[in-house]
TrEMBL record:
Lineage, broadest ranks: Bacteria, Bacillati, Bacillota, Clostridia, Eubacteriales
UniProt xrefs under InterPro entries: YczE/YyaS-like
Pfam families named among the record's database cross-references: DUF6198
Entry annotated with the keyword Transmembrane helix: yes
PANTHER family membership: INTEGRAL MEMBRANE PROTEIN, INTEGRAL MEMBRANE PROTEIN-RELATED
The name this protein goes by in its record: YitT family protein
Transmembrane segments: 12-29, 58-84, 105-127, 160-188
Organism from which the protein derives: Clostridium sartagoforme
Keywords for the protein's UniProt record, in alphabetical order: Membrane, Transmembrane, Transmembrane helix
Length: 213
């Protein structure tokens, strides 16, 4: 019974984490200040390959998962659910119009800041389930561990790198894109510190371990 209750708690926490990450994406999208670095990257891939942005997202997720495996990150049920569910939640939240669209620059900046902190808390919730990081967060944690560098530096460097590549490939960049690239790592780091959460030392269960449980 205790195991079942624990599984239920982790499942709820995982889903709430995904919903918050999806909400973060919509907050930043509705800020009307520009695409996020990763969406600039996906748009750039779409321009070059002819793939849709959604297909480019899936392709980049697969590549990032492989990089995560090289960095000794375990692929868990949470990793797979992240790929499938976060995108679905983004569509649901966006279509429901729960999160308003910014009508001026100041409101847009506030929404960007809210979105980045919501992303940090969503990452804290679902990574803490120990069921596997999302593809991009797995690389962030893996590099932080391997290079012994803080999350804020690693995440910021990744965002800037994909932004540069996406821009070169023709992705559209706005002021919000630059704000996100520079600041999101710091926002996530602040949330982790406030929650006294060490993402680097979380031992994630593999898909096989979760299945056996």
């Amino acid at each position: 019974m205790r195991i079942l209750i624990n599984i239920l708690k982790k499942s709820i926490r995982l889903i709430i984490g995904f919903i918050l990450c999806a909400s973060s994406t919509v907050f930043m999208l509705n800020s009307n200040l520009g695409l996020s670095p990763w969406d600039v990257f996906h748009q750039g891939i779409s321009n070059v390959t002819g793939l849709t942005i959604g297909q480019a997202n899936i392709l980049s997720s697969v590549v990032v998962i492989i990089i995560g495996i090289v960095l000794s990150q375990r692929i868990g049920i949470g990793t797979l659910f992240n790929i499938i569910m976060v995108g679905k939640f983004v569509d649901i939240i966006n279509e429901s119009n729960i999160i308003p669209v910014a009508n001026n620059f100041f409101v847009g900046i506030v929404m960007m800041i809210i979105g980045m902190f919501v992303m940090g808390y969503g990452c804290y919730l679902y990574i803490g389930c120990e069921l596997g990081c999302g593809p991009r967060d797995g690389v962030m944690v893996g590099l932080s561990s391997k290079l012994n560098k803080p999350i804020k530096l690693i995440r910021g460097s990744i965002e800037i790198l994909v932004l540069i590549i996406g821009f070169i490939l023709g992705g559209k960049v706005g002021i919000g894109t630059l704000i996100s690239a520079i600041s999101i790592g710091y926002c996530i780091q602040i949330v982790f510190k406030l929650k006294n959460f060490d993402a680097v030392n979380v031992r994630h269960k593999s898909i096989m371990e979760s299945t056996k449980l």
